[in-house]
């Protein structure tokens, strides 16, 4: 199709595969676009709107990082990836990073040679049942049929949980959330289990939402993280610290509306000054511009704003901050200092 | 005396046939209630139809076409038809049909795929129907380049430069054939390849600098929905038939190398699931190609789909070739035709005629298989349906979207099947 195609194909025969490319940062800048792997469709986290532009909680982090690196939050090519292809696509260089509700686990980190650089959502696996079943605790689910998505950590957690509690269950393995939702409403299973955020989002769409309850037990830790390839530390730092900048911004009260004002001139708080580049040269240490954090915050606001706009209490998904509140408010979101 | 037997001297007026022997009643008795078993089956079938209509009918009749969320749809249905009633929410189609058809193609450029579609019909005309002027075949020939330019944009000179290769091939053939016939054919194959590799792009650049003319360039990730399915399906269909015919002929060849290559190719690609090839195209190739190589993912998929389909096509065509009596080949030889003449004038027209149902069946299968690209994260219509459903507004909607996508596919596949039947009738020369 293009010259590069033909030459590339031929060169492939000659060049030994796996030759190290330039750093991811250089690649992204040269391309002028960030390739960000995300969900093809997960309510609240990533979905195309009527104009075909991806929106959502995960996508907002892609946009913040594109803004920090390229100066424009829209210079993101959101590449929708399935559970099965996501890590391969990242390892093969098809995407620069993943913001795709991927749980940080030991074996993924070490065996798959990935780096999980920032937990943007602390989730946990929960259960949803029909109220008519009269179940009030997951401990009463012995012998139940359970809808689960294959290829996810939830499948393994479920097996562990039932085994450790001496219960049995009948799995109904399903491909994705849409299928699971349909099977659950059609009565193919008594219980639907997935991340609690997903359950809440699913329940919100039911015509008879009040007929379904989420059980109180959360049976696993699901830290959903931003992921990059192993071995490119500069790029990992950029993703990690852009995420941290959004957290710190919330902590320091910097929002998308007041960031311009605060960045206009150095203020009294030196940490704000360092973060927004009015003092010191923090951006240059990562190979970014001085005002990288300003651009990142302007893209979609600080962490709290992103949360509220996409999955927070004001949306139909209506998730509470819970574990995802800042550490100062009893949550787990904690950014190392900008110093 | 008066015991003469009665003799009728007037014709009786003809009577109507008994009501059980005419019209609908007779048809029903013969076809629906001809015995106890058939009667039971008929009643069961009627009940089945009734249940379907009674379930779907009201649902369809209560459809809502204007709403912005599923909740709103449900509210409208309940408001107009009473509490607890369910109705179809076609409002989602109303809002998103463009996305299902065009994917993420920019809205202001919808005219480009639409125009391509219209031109495709024009290009298909002379291929499908003999009454269309033959001159149009030139346009059909150039259509792939035109379609590529319209859909992806960029400079107009690249497709022009690519098409020029055929001129190059022709020139090489004409110049060298008088020297040596074989040399002419070899040159006609090698010259355009060399041209594509070394001259094509620079030539396009020169022309573009001299006379810039182009459309806005679009990326492959902006393709999606039915547009993507058609691009992959139609290119796969168009390229796999010729390739399949060549493979089928190669498989029958007496030349050891040609035959072995073709057999290995056919069996190799037929023995692998399409989804594997798609994964190779999308993931594995990235490991082998040098980093930073821009090898368009749709192009990769088209190549894989074409190869896969050609392997099947080759076997279908081989079936047609095998159906020809040996006498046909011998007759061609006796007439003194060379190999290509024999194939073109005698063998292929008959073999292809026999294979029409198989070929078209393959085409339809290929077209529907294009939905498999959702596994490699391309936005086929079904993937888009999932994405649309992931929006809060439309989460929880299934049938309306699936019905729409199903109808779209039907609209493509049904004419294909009808055309194949038309062609079979037209080409029927036997007296069965």
What attributes characterize this protein structure?
heterodimer; A: 339 residues; alpha/beta; D-Maltodextrin-Binding Protein, domain 2; five-stranded mixed β-sheet; 14 helices; 12 strands; disordered N terminus; B: 432 residues; mainly alpha; 2 strands
Summarize the SSE layout with pairings:
The complex is a heterodimer of chains A (339) and B (432).
Chain A: H1 3-14, H2 24-31, E1 34-38, E2 47-48, E3 54-55, H3 57-70, E4 76-80, H4 86-91, E5 97-103, H5 106-110, E6 114-123, E7 125-130, E8 144-149, H6 153-164, E9 169-174, H7 177-185, E10 191-195, H8 196-205, E11 212-214, E12 222-229, H9 233-252, H10 259-264, H11 270-276, H12 282-286, H13 292-300, H14 303-310
Parallel strand pairs in A: 1-4, 1-5, 8-9, 8-10
Antiparallel strand pairs in A: 2-3, 5-12, 6-12, 7-10, 7-11
Helix pairs in contact in A: 3-9, 3-13, 9-13
Chain B: H1 23-31, H2 36-61, H3 70-81, H4 91-102, H5 111-128, H6 137-152, E1 154-155, H7 157-176, H8 181-210, E2 214-215, H9 225-251, H10 256-270, H11 274-288, H12 297-323, H13 326-334, H14 339-369, H15 381-389, H16 399-426
Antiparallel strand pairs in B: 1-2
Helix pairs in contact in B: 4-9, 4-15, 5-6, 6-7, 7-8, 9-10, 9-12, 9-14, 9-15, 10-12, 11-12, 12-14, 13-14, 14-16
Q: Please name the CATH topology of the largest domain in chain A.
A: D-Maltodextrin-Binding Protein, domain 2
* CATH architecture heading of the largest domain in chain A: 3-Layer(aba) Sandwich
State the helix count of chain A. Answer: 14
Going by CATH, the homologous superfamily of the largest domain in chain A would be Periplasmic binding protein-like II
Any idea what the CATH superfamily of the domain at 97-105 and 223-426 in chain B is called? MetI-like
Quaternary organisation of the protein chains? heterodimer
Task: Note the gap between the termini of chain B.
Answer: 65 Å
Hey, which two chains have the biggest interface?
A: A-B, 55 and 47 residues
Instruction: Indicate the low-confidence ranges of chain A by residue numbers.
Output: 1-20
